[in-house]
Amino acid sequence: MSKLPIKNELGFFEIRLESIGGLGAHLAGKMLAEAGVLGLGLYGSHFSSYGSEKKGSPVKSYVRFGEREIRASSPVERPHIVGVFHENLFKTIDVANGLYPDGVIIVNTTKTPEEIRERFNIKSGTVAVVDALGIAVEEKTRVNTAMLGAIFRVADFLDPEAMKNVLRATFEEKYPQLVDANIRTFERGYNEVQFKTYEPEKGAVAEYIRPISALGYETQPIGGVIINPGNSILKDLSSSRQGFLPAFEQEKCINCASCDFACPDFCFVWEEKEDKKGRPQMFLQGIDYQYCKGCMKCVAVCPTGALTKIREVDGYADEHRVPHQFVLASN
Questions:
Q1: What is the 3-state composition of the chain as percent helix, strand, coil, each rounded to the nearest 5?
Q2: Phi, psi torsion values for 12, nearest 5 degrees
Q3: Which of 57, 217, 232, 306: CA 20 to 30 A from 150?
Q4: Beta bridge partners of 195
Q5: Strands (E), 9-156
Q6: What is the mean pLDDT of each run of 10 residues along the chain (331 residues)?
Q7: Whole-angstrom Cα distance, residue 20 to residue 5?
Q8: CB of 87 closer than 8 Å to CB of 237
């Protein structure tokens, strides 16, 4: 009897993890493949694709399982499961590109499956959601372990006990104090994931749109024209944030501009007003989140506690935890 419930035309079950640097997608893919190999005796392969090795840059991690030797080393274009480690990736990347009509997409979010499906126009398949960031914050671990728990829940042919053994082997030698916390995080991701299945239309197929390269001599624009130049209007760094934002409390601010000096992306908005003596002075009005990548350097240098680190919800700050003086300059 086959150990894999679904296979593609090459006989593989394939998983793609969409993430940003710093959330642990590369390690998650490595441990996922290891658990399939050691726990089920499957053939497995894993590799990741990313640009600069820094926090916030896009990362794709690919996992293949098979019941025969795997020689394919190409990126996973038509996955059976997609794990989205960062909800804001939907803004810049078609994370569901190539997903089978009856496939599974798992999103790290506080939204419901219905909200995710409607907002990102997911036509069919299983939509699963888990607050992996919230779990990681509470357990003092990382998002990747909670996402692994959710993946093992929807890929029920995988053995959760094998994953726990891999977690122990990964952490116990160098970081033994993290073993129990990561196992709890995995179990919570497994138990707290919510999902809903939407039946595909008859005849629906997996569509994959391969990016068109503009680097070759046949595909580059005539004259080497830069058709999408860098600019400050279209720059949106929200997909670089790892789930937290700085919140601004104006009563505590002394307008010292330490935050502005530390900020690498000029997020802070100022307005010239008169001080108590009638002299012109620049006063901090708030933060424009379009340009904020959540590096928290401003929070580290603020001498009065006017800037604090809070949880991001839906691309903005959690309105229940933000003081009323907190403003979004683009509004």
A1: 30, 25, 45
A2: -115, 150
A3: 57
A4: 128
A5: 12-20, 43-50, 58-66, 81-84, 104-108, 125-130
A6: 82 95 92 94 93 77 95 92 91 88 94 92 93 92 95 93 95 92 97 94 79 70 71 71 87 95 92 91 91 91 94 56 36 34
A7: 29
A8: no
Burial classification of residue 44, based on how many CB atoms lie within 10 Å of its CB (0-12 exposed, 13-18 middle, 19 or more buried): buried
CB 195 within 8 A of CB 126: yes
CA dist., res. 44 & res. 31, Å (int): 11
> Tokens for 224?
């080497």
Smallest CA-to-CA distance from 92 within 235, 226, 230 is with: 235
Contacts of 34 (CB under 8 A, 6+ apart): 44, 166
Are 252 and 231 within 8 A, CB to CB?
Answer: no
Q: Nearest to residue 81, comparing CAs of 109, 56, 48, 106?
A: 106
